[in-house]
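[stage:ingest] chain + small molecule (adenosine-5'-diphosphate)
[stage:ingest] validated
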Amino acid sequence: MSEQLAKELQLEEENAAFPEVVAVAEGPFITGENIDTSSDLMLAQMLQMEFDREYDAQLRREEKKINGDSKVSISFENYRKVHPYDSDSSEDEVDWQDTRHDPYRADKPTTTPRKGFIGKGKDITTKHDEVVCGRKNTARMENFAPEFQVGDGIGMDLKLSNQVFNALKQHAYSEERRSARLHEKKEHSTAEKAVDPKTRLLLYKMVNAGMLETITGCISTGKESVVFHAYGGNATEDKVIPPECAIKVFKTTLNEFKNRDKYIKDDYRFKDRFSKLNPRKIIRMWAEKEMHNLTRMQNAGIPCPQVVILKKHVLVMSFIGQDQVPAPKLKDVTLSSEDMKKAYYQILNMMQQLYKECNLVHADLSEYNMLWHDGKVWLIDVSQSVEPTHPHGLEFLFRDCKNVSQFFQKGGVAEALNERELFNAVSGLNITADNEVDFQAEIEALEKMNEDHVQNHGKKLSMFSSDGDPPIYDE
Ligand code: ADP
Ligand code: MN
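[stage:predict] done
[stage:export] tokens:
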């Protein structure tokens, strides 16, 4: 009796001592007012962002005042503050395909001929010419690490002497090494936390822009992504924000993604880009892929999250669930045998739609990536989905079929097709092998045949696009 009393007293004491701690832990993750300020750098960046925004607003007012109704107007565009983290422009998300003119790159490379000089008599210019050399040095600054701010030397026709250039080069290299060390430290120190400072800033910006109301907390921490719940903010002119959103942050710690290469490397939609990209951009590509795939599914009417916005490696979509509670995964929900049967036929239908209408194979379909909400199944997690003509697309489909068949056969759905029947029903192919090994072999043979066919005739003539319809290529 006295022990129990002592415990109660202690508990009371503890509660009195740490009330704020508890409140913070349960409070929202990011709101307009309450944000984590543990990182000085981030705090400084946020403040800078506010200042820059105010400054720009003031600039716009002045611009308007000066120009009035005049037909000829003066633009203050060049005086706007462009904060490195505040590039809200859509180019930001697609900078891997940025083809804008690069002022540092000469249109046609000019070389000094072998003999070492151009021109005649008094107008001779040698390769040691101060002006030519200086410009060349300025252009060579583009080889420095991207974080190394070199300014707009072209804009003012900057000419760097060899001495200055060499000193800068040295500095750039030591900065690069230092930043790599710092970066490593930061990565490790935030491994346990949900997101790194840059991502936090990105999330904060979404709240600050009014797109999201509050980011309440984390729903899931996976190996490759972290998912947050958020309340939607105000609708913009072109977009209605759902009342509740899910934010999928693709992890920028790179090593987790190594084993996913096979999904994207052979996907011709991304093939040309893949080789040219750095790892950070490849991770953005996963987010982009998920967005495109979700959009295709949405267009086909398959129940799935609706895309709200994509920013770098952060994908915002509608939340499947209610009042911050995510819909349960199919593996965690106990369905009546009637609902189980209903779910099975719905999935069969969705797999066919996905294949025929969206020209996609989920490639990670299982009871873990299907949610039960509103009396039906919702498909999620489609960043790894590929087109059926992907060199391993049919193998992925077969694996999906195995998962689905097993789950429903174990779940007591007598009507559930076995994995081979399901595969044929979804793909429209007619593989007759009656055991797994032969079936798998036939699948691989088909893939190989298709690869050769595609090699010879181009991707549009793939052999097993649905019903002879051309696959959907435009995004
Ligand atoms: P991962 O690659 O980490 O498996 P998922 O896309 O499957 O990423 O998301 C992980 C978990 O987050 C899901 O199992 C689900 O519980 C939850 N989740 C993801 N997206 C949503 C969403 N739009 N609505 C509700 N919950 C979601
Ligand atoms: Mn998942």
